[in-house]
Amino acid sequence: MKKQHDDSNNSLWPFEELPPAKPAQTQRHRNGAPAEGAAKRIEEKEDGRGGGEETIKPFPREVFARLAKDAEHAGGEWQERDYGPGYVGQTLFDTPASEDNTVTVVLPQANIGKVPAQAPVRIESTDGRSYLGIVVRGPFAEPDGIRGDSPIVVTTSVYGTVFLPDYHGRVQVLLLGEELGGKGGQLVPQRFRPLPKSPVYVLTSEEMARVLKLDGEIELGLAIGHEELVVRVPARRKSLWCRHVGILGTTGGGKSTTVSGLVSQLQRQGFATILIDIEGEYTTINEPTDDATMLAALERRRKEPAGVGQVTIYHLVGRRTANPQTKQAAVQPFCLLFEQLSPYLVCELLEMTEAQQERYLRAYDITKQILHELKISPRAGEDASWLLELDELEEGYRGMRLEHIYDVVRACTSLVEKVEGNIEFSSPDLKAASQTVIQKIKSAAKGLPGAPSSWRALQGKLRRLLNLRIFDNREAQPLRYDQMLRQGQVAIIDLSDTDSPQINNLVIAELLRGVHLHQDERYAQLERQPERQATPSSGAGQTQAVKEGKGLVPVMVIIEEAHEFLSAERVRQMPTLFEQVARMARRGRKRWLGLVFVTQLPQHLPDEVLGLINNVILHKITDANVISRLKRSIGGIDEGLWTRLPNLAPGQAIVALDGMIQPFLVAIDPTPCKLRMVD
């Protein structure tokens, strides 16, 4: 059937059904102007003045016939294309301001709410390629056909008139890669860009988790902008936990919630977790939370409050724990063993001058000779092969106690001052053979450096250390790493009652050395097992098990207030301590040993420490200089996320962890356990 077009209402009419024209009637809009699209033929009465009555006559019917024929030849009446489920918009043309690896997508007004920030999308380019991307800016609302900041839009918005135009949405999409072989294929780096006018689709929740690699056993929280997209990471990913994590942010940003929630989940996954607690904040994590805000947040996430299992609280002998009334958790005092501290580390931690270091190391050598000759260490009949393997940059002389070297320093001070009659010993070992010891010291002390004041200053520092009664104390046992590093065990090292950064650093240094040594021994045992137990059919499998770390309990050491332990100033003053940490960080991956650095002052961490961190959880940071420095150290975070960092709400964090295809802004889950200090 031929069709004829009546342009007065933009519809197609059958030729036979055209409405009859009204020759003498004038068709007008409400404003009085002639109707659009109608052919106007004006007839005027000849009255000599050029005026007359206006009449509107219809187009000739053959015009509509030709239009209908042309439309039919072009494919018929235009119909909107059905792009299928998930369609939200199309890619826009590039402009001089366009950036590599990003494309602009425009959305109909009704679809703006379907593409929130951080929404993963699929772009089915008109050249047949399929791309995946993620929204990094927007969604923004723009007026149709006019700039949003044009004077007419601003003016009418201010005064609330009815002129405001309709609007559409716009988002900026960061390309993640091209799907090899089309939709659902393996994601590979893209070589081209999506073409303009390519349809864009949002992914389902299942596709989002798969594409963005957000699956795993450790649940961090919800991706901001999504109702159901949970950010998860695998528990057994070495490149994540054993390449070390930084949890950074200002006070009140939610770091404690993140740490306690992480400890709770790691414990359930069989990790041995050691948490160095400077403020005693975590000494109640064995109990369920009773904070009203946290309980409400847990209810929204359909989670139950629960304490952490298998918790032991350790505190230095002679000091108190922040929570002595804790329920369902063991409380155990501990002491340090002086023999386990490198002499060079002692010099650094006590901040000895160069002259004091020279005298201390000389007294240290004299003490070793005395202990060896008196058969105190090694004892008679003991295998002394350890002497050949002794590395004094890592540990001290086995069997040496702090009171031993203090007695020797005091005796050397008396010899330099030429008051030999004042020599006496407090150590039972040296006191029992005082005359022999004095002769040994005299013979070994020939050519001692002078300057009695330096000797007395050194003696005073060792005396203050001795008065702390934290070394070789018979009222407490040293840390038992075989107990601390059991599967699912959580050890809280409560240092809240020390009030001394030097003591804290001594404890942390000894703890890290002991954990590293114990994990090394366990790894060596696994390596020896195939030699003792392998059969021709099973040997290869056991060797592979050693390579994969099977049989090792994964260990996480979380250092709170890391800036006090590893500040830039301390790293310069204590290179031996930092080298211990760096060696542990480098060798920890194979041995399933990870570090988590937690600090509210990331600006105090030196570049050497930031270089050890490959994964970050960033809470609110307001200092622009700190953010600029972190940008240089941490790659892969989009500029749009950096700009949001200063304004994050408590509990929000930028999560950039290994294995995630893209950093995410996450609302961290509330902690189910109790914290002592809640803002």
TrEMBL record:
<dbReference type="Pfam" id="PF01935">
    <property type="entry name" value="DUF87"/>
</dbReference>
<dbReference type="GO" id="GO:0004386">
    <property type="term" value="F:helicase activity"/>
</dbReference>
<feature type="compositionally biased region" description="Basic and acidic residues">
    <location>
        <begin position="38"/>
        <end position="57"/>
    </location>
</feature>
<keyword id="KW-0347">Helicase</keyword>
<keyword id="KW-0067">ATP-binding</keyword>
<feature type="domain" description="Helicase HerA central">
    <location>
        <begin position="219"/>
        <end position="513"/>
    </location>
</feature>
<feature type="region of interest" description="Disordered">
    <location>
        <begin position="1"/>
        <end position="57"/>
    </location>
</feature>
<keyword id="KW-0547">Nucleotide-binding</keyword>
<dbReference type="InterPro" id="IPR027417">
    <property type="entry name" value="P-loop_NTPase"/>
</dbReference>
<protein>
    <submittedName>
        <fullName>Bipolar DNA helicase</fullName>
    </submittedName>
</protein>
<keyword id="KW-0378">Hydrolase</keyword>
<dbReference type="InterPro" id="IPR008571">
    <property type="entry name" value="HerA-like"/>
</dbReference>
<dbReference type="InterPro" id="IPR002789">
    <property type="entry name" value="HerA_central"/>
</dbReference>
